[in-house]
Design brief:
With 100 residues, the protein is an all-alpha fold. The protein is built from five helices and no strands. The chain has a single domain, classed as MazG-like (Helix Hairpins, Orthogonal Bundle). α1 crosses α4 and α3 packs antiparallel against α4.
């Protein structure tokens, strides 16, 4: 485990999600989520699925699995934000506002 956390990875992932949304390709999992015939329901289903998997892993004390599921959940949540037309900066601003 690293002694530091580089939060820039979230911005990098967001940038990739933005690129996939603007220039979808069939090879891209992110593009497929954003262009699925179910619309936003597809990515919201994934958020629900990953949430449940995270909860189960955490409840069972499976640390490695909890980290993996948390990563999946955060990724799918970011895609859901994009699919909802919400910019990540709005969420970050709200988190910052609540911290004060």
């Amino acid at each position: 485990m690293k002694d530091y956390v580089d939060t820039a990875i979230i911005a990098e992932i967001w940038s990739i999600i933005e690129k996939r949304a603007k220039n979808p390709t069939p090879e891209s999992y992110t593009s497929r989520l954003l262009t699925d015939k179910k619309g936003i329901d597809k990515v919201l289903e994934k958020v629900g699925e990953e949430s449940i998997e995270f909860i189960i892993a955490a409840k069972n004390g499976l640390n490695d699995r909890t980290v993996e599921e948390a990563s999946d959940l955060i990724f799918h949540l970011l895609v859901a934000l994009r699919a909802s037309g919400i910019d990540l900066s709005d969420v970050m601003y709200e988190l910052e506002r609540r911290r004060k």
